[in-house]
Amino acid sequence: MAASERAPKRPGRAPQGVQPGVPRGAAEARRRVRTVLGEAAAAGGPDVGAAALTDALLVASELVSNAYRHGGGLTGFAVELDRAAVRITVSDASTELPHVAEPRTAGAHGGFGWPLVHLLSAEVTVTLLPGDGKRIRATVPLRTCPPGRPAPTRPGGGP
Question: 26-98+112-141 has which fold?
Fold first, then answer.
């Protein structure tokens, strides 16, 4: 997608001319993450707990939505899994670095995605690409637990 194309007004909807091989929106990105993790578990890889799956799906949604909304379009997407983490890599057409939005008034929407990606990830890196664009890689830890044991909780008691 050319950097001059406009991002869609609604998150998760891809504009015309989306790059081949990349998710057309956040829902498709979530399906890809779920597929990679499910195939790995079926092949004897790590069995990802519900909390880690939810975290990975949310991180993928946020990164893809932000690429379409703020980054001039999604130009690359990858999901990698090892025994300790799932890595979600998103490339977009913008060289503008992600940032936290200004405090918003009550009732306003948006501005929570980038802090949420950091909260759920053990590591987040942003790399400017030669030419145009950037690559964001988020490493979401797997919090697997033995069968019959409750999933670990986050501070504050959440899963």
Answer: Heat Shock Protein 90 (3.30.565)
Enter the tokens of residue 132.
């145009």
DSSP class of residue 44? Answer: T
Which residue's structure tokens are 């030669």?
A: 130
Most confident of 10-14, 48-52, 97-101, 118-122: 118-122
Calpha distance 127→136 (Å, rounded)? 6
Q: Give Cα 8 to chain centroid, integer Å.
A: 18
Q: Which residues contact 118 (CB under 8 A, 6 or more apart)?
A: 124
Q: Please name the helix (run of DSSP H) or strand (run of DSSP E) that holds residue 65, with its range, or none.
A: helix 50-70
Query: What is the reported pTM?
Result: 0.76
- What is the rounded distance in angstroms from the CA atom of residue 55 to the CA atom of residue 141? 9
φ, ψ (nearest 5 deg) of residue 136: -115, 130
88: closest CA among 158, 136, 154?
136
